[in-house]
Amino acid sequence: MLHIMKTFMLIVLVSALATQNLRAETWELTNIKGYSARGNNIPKYKYENDELPETITLTFNENTGEVSGTSIKFVRHGKYTLVGVALQEGFETVVVYQIDRQRNKVLISQSRMSDKFAEILIPNRIWSFVGDARLIRN
Question: Tell me: domain 23-137, CATH 2.40.128, correct?
Answer without folding.
Answer: yes
